[in-house]
Design a protein that fits this description.
about 525 residues, Rossmann fold, single chain
Length: about 525
């Protein structure tokens, strides 16, 4: 639910009564009542900034971005000196897909925020979301200067420093968080994954103490369980590692309102909408050659591949962009997620202008892109959209990462994702998801021309780095540069679960790691093999 933010205004009994009713509705999470009261507030008191702020926040949650932007702009116009209103406008721009305007509004807020430490660290969070880690770090340091005892500020700084690639400094900052708050579960979770733990240097005793003696809530217990799973794996106590991993995953899965059926239907719908020869019938799109889409299952090697290519002087890593999918929804004219459009909705979308989708996508990636010949969009979920990408951007390159099925499925199971990938907390659901995913990837290989679609094996890349990197660079139409072999020196920020791995040269220990858990993974393996997938 939204929060109330705005400037101090003169008392007004009727308005204040409405605000109290809104806050009560928000407290009981009654969205319909909240929306009705907020609409009444904006109609009765059109000059009251908080009303427009609340309305814009609710509209963002409902995916009504045009209305959200209109209200966010009205709020700023009522008081251009209000930093919180400017930050709200920045957030709304971002969710509406206007990154350039979102960044501009965030920069404007830095000049308005004054000494509001909470607001400053929230602003640091916005810059983090926009992948501007330098500015994010500066904001969190500014907040700490105002309130050096605030644990949250130190934690936020550590997260931004970690994403920027200074893992040694980040480790010290997480230890500072624990010094201030010895029971901070999220700090321990990050410490566990920032480097490989050893029998002589780990946090197992401290984390187990928190888990067994502190009576943590479910979310805290979940984070601590994942941390212990990572640390026990590092010291090669695999049965203990899996026991804690399953405990954490079970908590997460129980708290999700998720059904895999919509995922499986979406794959069927996509295959039906892209039969062999379909691109002879569909109107083709925008002819930009800038984008390189790196796609695949999470934890399949997409971040490693991104960093190899991004080490080339002609390539910029733009991160995991949501813009392509958002533009498809916009083009469809539907408020539904793509997964819920069905075959009829997808076919109606394909009857519109792919060029418009492609051109809008390129425009919305600005200003971060456009400074090099190519940019990388590394959103793994775009693997499902490869046919639509080729329809909208026929000259874009797509690189699909392939990894051993059990390794990639187990790697998904081991990660506590911040958002999405709800299938990944049950071995059976991971298997069902992967079976459908593999069927769709095999289909893309048959319908998308080979000059646009390239599959690379994670195992081959690890075993033969230079040979596979050269083939990858050649596929992308680039001249070879030796810097691509030293990807770990790339200074670009990384926020995915692979952040520690890509800061060092390629190593082979991640290959076939699942074999340490062969017995525990039988529910997954049996399901994959029953579908004809080779798990040897």
């Amino acid at each position: 639910m939204p929060t109330v933010t705005g400037k101090q205004v003169a008392p007004d009994a009727a308005r204040d009564e409405l605000m109290a009713a809104i806050e009560a509705a928000m407290a009981r999470e009654d969205r319909d009542a909240t929306l009705g009261l907020v609409i009444e507030l904006t109609q009765r008191h059109p000059e009251f900034q908080d009303g427009h702020l609340l309305f814009s926040q609710i509209m963002v949650e409902l995916g009504r971005n045009t209305l959200a932007l209109d209200s966010a702009r009205k709020a700023v116009a009522l008081d251009k000196s209000n930093a919180r209103a400017m930050m709200n406008l920045s957030r709304v721009y971002f969710f509406a897909g206007f990154l350039e305007q979102a960044i501009q509004a965030a920069v404007s807020a830095t000049n308005l925020i004054g000494e509001d430490a909470e607001g400053i660290t929230a602003l640091g969070g916005l810059f983090y979301r926009y992948n501007d880690f330098e500015q994010s770090i500066a904001m969190h340091e500014r907040a700490i200067a105002l309130d050096p005892g605030n644990t949250t500020f130190w934690y936020n700084l550590a997260i931004s420093v970690q994403a920027a690639g200074d893992l040694d400094k980040a480790e010290k900052l997480f230890l500072k968080v624990i010094e201030l708050d010895p029971d901070n579960a999220k700090a321990y979770t990050n410490l566990s994954r920032i480097r490989k733990q050893t029998p002589d240097r780990n946090h197992i005793a401290q984390i187990e103490r928190l888990l067994t003696q502190g009576k943590p809530d479910r979310e805290t217990a979940m984070h601590l369980s994942y941390a212990l799973a990572k640390e026990y794996e590092d010291i090669e106590d695999f049965p203990m590692s899996f026991a804690f991993l399953k405990a954490g995953a079970d908590i997460k899965r129980q708290d999700l309102g998720y059904s895999i059926e919509s995922e499986l239907r979406f794959v069927d719908d996509l295959i039906a909408c892209f039969p062999p020869g379909c691109f002879d019938d569909y109107r083709f799109g925008h002819l930009s050659q800038e984008p390189i889409f790196i796609v695949g299952m999470p934890r399949s090697g997409t971040t490693l591949t991104e960093q190899i290519l991004a080490s080339h002087s002609d390539v910029f890593a733009a991160g995991e962009l949501r813009d392509f999918g958002m533009n498809l929804i916009l083009q469809s004219g539907s408020k539904k997620p793509l997964e819920d459009l069905g075959q009829d909705g997808l076919k109606r979308l394909l009857g519109t202008s792919g060029a418009q989708v492609g051109e809008r996508y390129i425009e919305k990636t600005r200003p971060r892109t456009g400074h090099t010949r190519h940019f990388i969009d590394k959103l793994p979920r775009n693997s499902h959209l490869c046919g639509l990408i080729h329809w909208a951007l026929p000259q874009a390159k797509m690189v699909l990462l392939d990894r051993h099925p059990v390794d990639v499925c187990f790697s998904n199971y081991k990660v506590l994702f911040k958002n999405g990938y709800e299938y990944s907390y049950s071995l059976e659901e991971i298997a069902d998801y992967y079976i459908a995913y593999r069927r769709l990837m095999d289909h893309w290989k048959t319908v998308i021309p080979a000059e646009s679609f390239y599959e690379i094996s994670y195992e081959k890349l690890v075993a033969n780095q230079e040979e596979e990197s050269r083939k990858l660079v050649e596929f992308c139409g680039l001249e070879w540069q030796d810097a691509c072999l030293q990807f770990y020196k790339n200074k670009e920020g990384v926020t995915t679960a692979s952040l520690a791995q890509v800061r060092q040269p390629i190593y082979k220990s991640a290959v076939a790691r699942w074999r340490n858990y062969r017995e525990e993974l039988q529910p997954l393996i049996a399901r994959l093999e029953a579908a004809g997938i080779d798990c040897s």
